[in-house]
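> Could you send the DUF2784 domain-containing protein prediction when you get a chance?

Sure thing. Input:
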Amino acid sequence: MDAAVVADLVMLVHLGFLLYVALGGFLAWRRRWLIVPHVAAASWGLVSATVGIACPLTAWEDAARRRAGEQGLPRGFVDTYLTGVVYPADRLVEAQLLVATIVLVSWAGFALRERRRRRQPVAP
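Output:
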């Protein structure tokens, strides 16, 4: 497969992963089993954003772009594709806090739904 196509596919997977980090807790409201991988994904997002550990998807995309003869990623995925595009460059912390709030709201909603579900009597 062409390296540029691989790079684009990795970029799309990475974007999907970031969307899952932000919104996956809401998916768990309907598919309860999704809470476990969502907690793992959100934990990775938190560690990556606070400690600065590079995501392997960024490295894979960068390597594929370089193999395709492109420049590669000048910065990380978020800095390249989101910062200054989806939100202003000087609002990174606010964007991170917004995503964290969305995740926490989804988890609180999940917990409330589980609590209600467990309180409902089982039909005979």
